[in-house]
Design a protein that fits this description.
Layout (H helix, E strand, L loop, with lengths): L2 H27 L3 H29 L22 H9 L1 H27 L3 H35 L6
Helix pairs in contact: 1-2, 1-4, 3-5, 4-5
């Protein structure tokens, strides 16, 4: 088994765990149910990615050929619930606003990583898998960047820019 492929899966697993941790902590720190729900839904999607990567890793580590794997990931389309109220509530919390900015960076890193992995693999099954993950992360990124832009407007309104 290609060490490069195993390392790519391990890097993906680590990245997904970073995202899960960030989203769960943002949910825990939020005082509003709708914001908590948003971040918990994001964490659940990242858990799916994590589990798919772990499954592939285990199968390849156990000696299965990448060509024998089917794309086990099923992408479910879900429009995130982003309302003005959620945006305002995120802007109210410096921690949650910072978590959102960090999430944008994690999603951008993930989509580039999966796109690169899809491009580099010689196995069509894994190319399809990594491409699908890249697209899913692209949707996360686009949604989060739009949310960040909307949140920024409210964040500046809430700040008084007074000395600490």
């Amino acid at each position: 088994m290609s060490e490069v492929l195993i390392e790519a899966l391990k890097k993906g697993i680590k990245g997904e765990m970073d995202s899960i941790t960030l989203y769960q902590e943002a949910a825990n720190r939020s005082q509003h149910a709708d914001v908590k729900e948003f971040f918990l839904e994001m964490a659940e999607e990242e858990k799916n990615h994590y589990n798919w990567l772990v499954s592939y890793y285990k199968k390849l580590h156990d000696g299965l050929s990448p060509a024998s794997l089917k794309n086990i990931a099923q992408m479910k389309e879900r429009a995130p619930i982003i309302t003005d109220e959620i945006v305002k509530r995120i802007a109210e919390s410096q921690y949650v606003t910072t978590a959102l900015a960090s999430a944008v960076l994690l999603e951008a890193t993930a989509l580039r990583f999966y796109a690169d992995s899809a491009e580099k693999t010689i196995y069509p099954e894994l190319q399809s898998f990594f491409s699908m993950l890249s697209e899913w992360e692209r949707k996360h990124y686009n949604n989060l960047i739009a949310m960040q832009e909307q949140t920024e407007r409210f964040w500046f309104d809430l700040q008084r820019f007074e000395p600490f």
